[in-house]
Amino acid sequence: MSKFLFAISLMTLLACGSGDSDSGSAGSASDAPPVSATAPTGSDVKAAGGEQAEAEAAEISSCIRLVAAGDYETAVPVCLEAAKIDADNADVQAALKKAETEAAKEAATGAAADALGGLGN
Questions:
Q1: Which of 3, 35, 108, 117 shows a CA-CA span of 20 to 30 A to 91?
Q2: Rounded to an integer, what distance in angstroms lies between the CA atom of residue 18 and that of residue 20?
Q3: In the chain, how many domains are there?
């Protein structure tokens, strides 16, 4: 029984002591993960922010391009999203207003044509 207690005590001491033996040494390679595994580098953060900025710029340019092409119905939701991204952008606000106005006109014209077409039958 004493050998058994001795073995348990020894294992406990070894287990407790193994973590404390390197606590004073700095830069132990076995204890710390590599820096790249713990945090993104500056270039990773810039790339992620850059991708988002590019996507936002693409949304804004798509809005303006669709309105310029006269595709107002498609432009309305794109311009609404662009206005959320950059509410102070005068070009986006003007494009959104034009897209909404022209899409409403197109819808009204289409509804009137449908109504007139149904009367002739």
A1: 108
A2: 6
A3: 1
Question: Which token pair is 100?
Answer: 């909404």
97 belongs to a structural domain: yes
Integer CA distances (angstroms), 52 to 21, 41, 45, 59, 107, in order:
47, 17, 11, 11, 34
Torsion angle (degrees, nearest 10) of CA 92, 93, 98, 103: 80
Give the global pTM. Answer: 0.55
Domain hosting residue 105, numbered range: 46-116
Model confidence pLDDT, tens digit, residues 53-66: 898 999 999 999 99
Residue 56 lies in a domain: yes
Residues 11-56 pLDDT 10s: 665 565 555 444 454 554 555 545 444 445 555 545 567 888 898 9
Amino acid code (one letter) for 18? S
